Amino acid sequence: MKVVLISMPDVTPIVIHQAAVHMPNLGIASVGGNIDPHHQVFLIDLIRKRRSLLRYLTQTLTRIRPDLVGLSAMAWQYHTCTQLARWIKRILPGVKIVLGGYHATLMSEEIAAAPEAPWIDFLVRGEGEEACRRLVNALDGRDAFADIPSLSYKSGETFLHNERAGPLDLATLKLPIRDRRRLTWGYHIVASKVEVMETSRGCTRSCNFCSMKNMYGRTFRTYPVERVLEDLDDIYYRRRTRSIFLVDDNFVLNPKRVMVLCDAIARRSYRNLNLIVQADCLSMAGNEEMVAAMARAGFRTVFLGIENISRKNLEVANKRHTAHVSRRAVDICQKHGLMVIGGLVFGFPDDDEDAIVENYRFLKDVGCDAAICQILTPYPKTDIRETLMKEGLVTNLDRYERYTGLWANVKTRHLDADRLQYLFWYHRQKILGWWSPNRRARRQQGRIWTGFWIYVVKPILRFFVNRTTRKYGWEGRHRRELVKLARVNRFRDLEGL
Questions:
Q1: Which is higher by pLDDT, 217 or 130?
Q2: How far apart are CA 165 and CA 183, in angstroms?
Q3: CB-hemisphere CA count at 13 Å for 387?
Q4: Helix or strand or coil: residue 346?
Q5: What residues are paired with 43 via a beta bridge?
Q6: Within a 13 Å sphere around the CA of 77, how many CA atoms are in the beta-carbon half?
Q7: What CATH architecture is 191-445?
């Protein structure tokens, strides 16, 4: 059997321009790596083919002639996913198409009843490695659709949904595909090559705006240390890549395990290793010894989910930490040389303009090296969505392509969606302003390109932005920015399909 697994081209420029960060999709790489070896598997990350989607897919798929095409999509990528499924069925009428990822998992029943259902043959809900492995074998006559947990398949024109499988034993999973079976290349963070890996799955925190429990349940599972080191060796030595983003949902959930893993990595004496990770403030603030071990192992950048400094908003989100905990987490990380990207969420029910200003000022005062700021998004099947819908605060129920974190899909008790959208943008410009990389950021991200940003790119951009502001005013400039944002994931060759 020939299998092609495809990730979507849609991006969300939360931190930096959409062309500056292109990472490979670990989901399709892991699924592909666990398909039985007598099948041929190819990977396509369409983030690297944003300017020529249909031409590239037509040439590649008609050359390979796959038996199965797998598409992976988040909620905000689903519209593009359905357009591609329709096109693939047009150019290869006999091919089977399977959808996986978060949206297929959370919305399987809705997808099965939707107008796009005729273009889709299978859905995989939850973790895909074992279900996809068995699906490929079933298409080859070696298994049966009805016997595969987590698979949805068609009987005539109707989808049948098998029972969900339990959590996978991560120790049984093979390494992701990173060799020539990956047909796209050129993954980067600005000028640095980058790869992705994971050391654990799941999170036991109770944040009600997160989709994680719908994917994995309230579980936290870890790969064996030996498996993590094998994966790291593959990236470091075979792929000759030094920057690695760990996609763990919450890497630091078990501090003792983190220290064991970090000690093992440090003993390998990798040179110039640059590990990037996501972490929660509670764990980082309460475990300075763990943070020190992370620094010794090569962790250089951490995304901290500060979320909000309002105790009331944190209670709404089921978050247990406070502003004091966030401040301590930032201080400890920076003490040990980690660059901190602070994450804030705006648009909670009680937010007004003063709350937006207060949160931005906190982020600036606490000294984060960079920021990821988003608007509260009512993702399908999350508890926060249900809460907001009951109060009539969700303003966009089903245009999922705008569920990127940068669009206001909600209103608050004090701000309508348009005003929230504007104030979220305006006060970021006024309070946080242009990014000015400090000494730590220059060391971690590279002195050449940060210097180029400081002395070349930023002055040029500032000149044109200031001219636009003088000409159109702040609100006029904001309207123009929204037009640009709407174009980010608009692909000309998909229009009209």
A1: 130
A2: 31
A3: 15
A4: strand
A5: 5, 182
A6: 22
A7: Alpha-Beta Barrel (3.20)
Mean pLDDT, range 197-217, rounded to an integer: 80
Confidence of residue 497 (pLDDT cuts 50, 70, 90): confident
Structure tokens given for 475? 């609100």
Contacts of 458 (CB under 8 A, 6+ apart): 434, 435
Whole-prediction pTM: 0.94
Give the model's confidence band at 199: pLDDT under 50 very low, under 70 low, under 90 confident, else very high.
Answer: very high
CA dihedral of residues 451, 302, 345, 480 (deg, nearest 10): 20
Q: How far apart are CA 2 and CA 136, in angstroms?
A: 9
Tokens of 496: 């009209």
CA within 13 Å, CB half, 167? 19
Answer yes or no: are the C-beta atoms of 373 and 346 closer than 8 Å.
Answer: yes
Give the span between the Cα atoms of 323 and 366, in whole angstroms.
10
Rounded Cα distance between 73 and 78, Å, is: 6
Q: What pLDDT is recorded for position 8?
A: 97
Q: End-to-end CA distance of the chain, in Å?
A: 29
Helices and strands in the chain: count of H runs, count of E runs: 19, 17
pLDDT at 496 > cutoff 90: no
Superfamily (CATH) of domain 2-169: Response regulator (3.40.50.2300)
The Cα 495–Cα 312 span in angstroms is 44
What is the spatial distance between Cα 23 and Cα 271, in angstroms, rounded to a whole number?
22
In which band, very low, low, confident or very high, does the pLDDT at 217 lie, cut at 50, 70 and 90?
confident
**Across-strand partners of 223?**
none
3-state helix, strand, coil in the chain (%, to 5): 45, 15, 35
Residue pair 312/351 in contact by the 8 Å Cβ criterion: no
Task: Please state, in angstroms and rounded to a whole number, the distance separating the CA atoms of residues 355 and 5.
Answer: 44
Picking from 158-167, 413-422, 442-451, 465-474, which range would have the lowest pLDDT averaged per residue?
A: 442-451
Q: Could you tell me the residue ranges of all domains in the chain? A: 2-169, 191-445, 457-492
Dihedral sign from CA coordinates of 289, 208, 77, 403: negative
Report pLDDT for 89.
Answer: 97
CA angle 397, 401, 404 (to 5 degrees): 95
Asked if 235 contacts 244 with a C-beta cutoff of 8 angstroms, the reply is yes
Which residues have a Cβ under 8 Å from the Cβ of 141 and sit 6 or more positions away?
none
The C-alpha atoms of residue 139 and residue 66 are separated, in whole angstroms, by 12
Contact assessment for residue 120 and residue 99, using Cβ atoms and an 8 Å cutoff: yes
